[in-house]
# Entry
Amino acid sequence: MVIARAGDVNFGDGFGLALFAGPCVIESEELCMDICARVKEITNKLGIAYVFKASFDKANRTSVDSFRGLGIDKGLETLARVKSRYGVPILTDIHEPWQAKPVSEVADIIQIPAFLCRQTDLIVAAAETGKCVNIKKGQFLAAWDMKNSVAKAKSTGNDNISLTERGNSFGYNTLVVDMCGLPALRALGCPVVFDATHSVQRPGGLGASSGGAREYIPHLVRAAVAVGVDALFMEVHPDPANAMCDAASMLDLADLAKVLAEAKAIETALLGCEG
# Structure
């Protein structure tokens, strides 16, 4: 069985589609609370397991002047309060090995950013916490090359690992998604997550920040669910145009219910075919 666990949420074989969603970065506690409440209401109606995600620090912003977040102390305090209030598992990412231990005291999933998916010390530190480790596939790697990152995590004895597809570099400022990469990732023995919002990103496309094409998010979600994934990753915001990070590629929160309903309908249709 290929299964990963995040708090009371299981995803993988025998479990329905899960959702990891929230803002790109923690802009404020009020925003996180609002987004979590609204997403949880949607997922409860659709029967989709929900994990709240947000970053306390975006260390890989394009410009030195870009907003990075509240920092680890205030960020973890905010995530802990979201978790306590809404009873949802938490996902957040780390950029340095020392961050793994304090983050593990709040987060149920520790995420390895795509640019850092080959950093041995980072992966090992995250896995040694015993928490679920979600490793994002680098834009520069083939799906099957992620076997080495998986091996690094599992070398600690932790097999609670998931892998996330978020597109591949295709020339300058462009990403494409090879849908064949989804089953290739799954063949590595880990649940697969599809990041629908970073996959429409145009890295550095605006010069001092990344661009994006959020209008294609619903199309990629439908395609990925039809191919087969265990969870969806989406950054959502009630006012994406004015978000402080990844404004061009986040999904408008107002559109989330429709996107998820379509995904759920595809999942249900596929289960019917298997039956």
Remarks:
- The chain has eight helices and 15 strands.
- The radius of gyration is 17 Å.
